[in-house]
Design goal:
single chain; 529 residues; mainly alpha; Amino acid/polyamine transporter I; two-stranded antiparallel ribbon; 2 strands
């Protein structure tokens, strides 16, 4: 278990704060080590939930190339991670994408980048709560041997009420601070990972069983992305695969609360690097095993069956694990609760930073005097996510599928801008430093950023088609496209209202635009004086 280190920030951190204008926000220091950050990162990414919600939508557009698209989705994430690590080392701040975007591109672009992060996490919070509802009633159905209990999720009133209850429980745990969060997360992650390994083995054993007509031997062609039919299918599949990696950057929002690193790489950056490697191995492996067991048929447990696309593991639990199916259901339920709890870390800390610098109302920067959690921002994000899910659940029966695709669009947007922030912020310093710095801080993040913004534009355009995603539509326009545009419109409206009410941030007075060369020069000048 991580212990507390209250020794305070290193001289390097204090110097960086003085140079960049960044400042602490009242969060407790030294609470989290590499293992603790890694556990919280795994919980946020929630492999069990992510896979059950994404394998179906991915298979519906790329078929047998589902493992390939998950593998390809790792590439822009890896490229973006170089930029994240460089920015986090230079400017450790709980605002991450918002803060870095503001420093590199100015207040307006920085605000929209922060909004992209906050909107993404609100979308995924509602999605996680919806999955928790499904597996809660499925667990009850298995426990009491009454299949009708699993159908209770189809009742919108019961579904929404249960969802709100789960959100309230997870928010309460987060509200009590990082210490309570860590204890809960260690237990939840250990249970989730153990069951997933069991499920993976069972999938491969079932695929080799002659009694399974859909079972196949994994084929190397499944890992070849060039076999995907058309750029639109590739883009849609890639957007879903980017969703599965989403959340690793939550680790970096805890930069003000992690222990001081012993080497050049920060504690949170080490944890984020380990997390990304772990995720790609797990996602590609389980995607291939699921494809081998279930195939891509459009009936029964086939991954092309639209009736199970939102929640594949719910359909596969009994066929794969038999009497132990309840353990998979419980693992995903626990994972959902843990992920709601850990996912709330990111928007709460981003909103805290935005309020701290004057980009959002000052009331959101309140830190709980006892628990030292960003209580106001946390409650706000949880309430908004709950309302969003409740409204969408009555509009569309395919809430989970549609929110995943909308989330993917937002993730591509803010990840892409954050990666380009690294390219722009370090553009002069990296050239003077050497080719390694140019590659890691400028070129690779730049390629990743451009890739993600292209996927963002293509997917948002395609999402206007009423047949896109689950096929839900309003007046002939795809629901995913409507939600994507609506999220941006709401953000822009809030941004202009805040600019009118509190213009200091938007004039660059609280968080100024700069680059690495200017900051280094200012640092040297202050040291000499």
């Amino acid at each position: 278990m991580d212990t507390f280190d209250l020794s305070g920030p290193s001289p390097q951190t204090r110097s960086l704060d003085a140079v960049t204008g960044l400042s602490r926000k009242g969060l407790p220091r030294g609470q989290i080590g590499v293992l603790g950050a890694l556990v919280l990162g795994i919980s946020t990414c929630a492999p069990a939930i992510t896979l059950t919600a994404s394998v179906g939508p991915a298979a519906s557009v790329v078929g047998d190339q589902t493992p390939a698209i998950f593998l390809v989705g790792f590439i822009p994430m890896l490229l973006v991670a170089f930029g994240y690590r460089a920015l986090n080392t230079a400017m450790p701040d709980s605002g991450t994408s918002f803060t870095w975007g503001s420093r590199a591109f100015g207040a307006w672009v920085g605000w929209l980048t922060g909004w992209g992060l906050v909107a993404s996490t609100v979308l995924v919070l509602s999605n996680l709560a919806g999955i928790a509802v499904d597996f809660f009633y499925q667990s009850l159905a298995i426990l009491f041997r009454d299949p009708s209990l699993a159908l209770l999720t189809e009742n919108p009133a019961i579904n929404v009420a249960t969802c709100l209850a789960f959100m309230a429980i997870a928010t309460f745990i987060s509200y009590r601070g990082m210490t309570s969060t860590k204890v809960f997360q260690y237990c939840a992650v250990a249970f989730q990972m153990a069951i997933l390994v069991w499920f993976l083995i069972a999938l491969l054993a079932g695929a080799a069983d002659d009694a399974n007509p859909a079972g196949r031997v994994p084929d190397l062609s499944w890992f070849d992305p060039t076999r995907i039919d058309g750029f639109s299918a590739f883009s849609a599949g890639l957007a879903v695969s980017i969703f599965v990696y989403w959340g690793w950057d939550t680790v970096l929002t805890m930069g003000e609360e992690t222990r001081a690193a012993r080497g050049r790489i920060s504690t949170e950056s080490k944890a984020a690097s380990i997390l990304l490697v772990l995720l790609v191995v797990m996602y590609v492996g389980i995607a291939a095993a699921t494809l081998a067991f279930a195939g891509t048929g459009t009936t029964g447990t086939g991954l092309g069956n639209p009736d199970i696309a939102e929640n594949v593991f719910a359909a596969l639990a009994n066929p794969v694990m038999g009497p132990a199916a309840i353990l998979l259901s419980l693992a995903i339920l626990v994972s959902a609760m843990a992920s709601i709890n850990s996912t709330a870390i990111s928007p709460a800390r981003t909103m805290l930073a935005m309020a701290h610098y004057g980009a959002l109302p000052a009331g959101l920067k309140r830190i709980h005097p006892r628990y030292k959690s960003p209580s106001a921002a946390l409650l706000t994000s949880s309430i908004v996510a709950s309302v969003f899910y409740a409204v969408l659940r009555f509009v569309s029966e395919d809430t989970l599928w549609d929110t995943i695709t909308t989330l993917s669009i937002m993730v591509c947007f803010y990840y892409g801008l954050t990666a380009l922030a690294s390219t722009w912020y370090f553009r002069k310093q990296a050239i003077a430093t050497g080719w390694k710095a140019v590659l890691a801080q400028v070129v690779l993040p730049g390629i990743g950023g451009v890739m993600l913004l292209v996927i963002f534009a293509q997917t948002l355009w395609d999402a206007m088609d009423p047949a896109f995603g689950s096929g839900s539509q309003i007046l002939g326009v795809g629901l995913v496209g409507i939600m994507g545009v609506l999220v941006f419109v709401v953000g822009i409206v809030i941004m202009f209202i805040q600019a009118k009410a509190s213009p200091a941030f938007f004039r660059g007075e609280t968080l100024s635009r700069s680059d690495a060369v200017a900051d280094a020069a200012l640092d040297e000048q202050r040291l000499l004086s």
